[in-house]
Amino acid sequence: MGIKLAQQIHLDAVMDRVELNCESWVMWARGQAKTISLLNGKVSTDDIQELCTRYGMKPDSPNAYGTLFRQKGWQFMEYKQSRIPSNHLRRIMVWRWNGV
Length: 100
What we know:
Blueprint: H1 3-21, H2 23-40, E1 43-44, H3 45-55, E2 74-81, E3 91-97
Antiparallel strand pairs: 1-3, 2-3
Helix pairs in contact: 2-3
């Protein structure tokens, strides 16, 4: 097994664990993300972080944001710089919901 494959398998296992440990938050956040995408044509983790701040719905792990768009039905659209100050202008992905 190559190093990159082993790293991806490890990352997938970690993200599976995070998703399971934050299951109710992930379900809520995915619902919000789908709604935003259907209304605006796109969504990013910035949109969800802003909602979480507004509603006090922070996940137990900040890594939970990384699990939101792993579900089938999400289409990657583009990269953009985050507008959340604590993200220090890092690049984030923008998604569109194409699922059912």
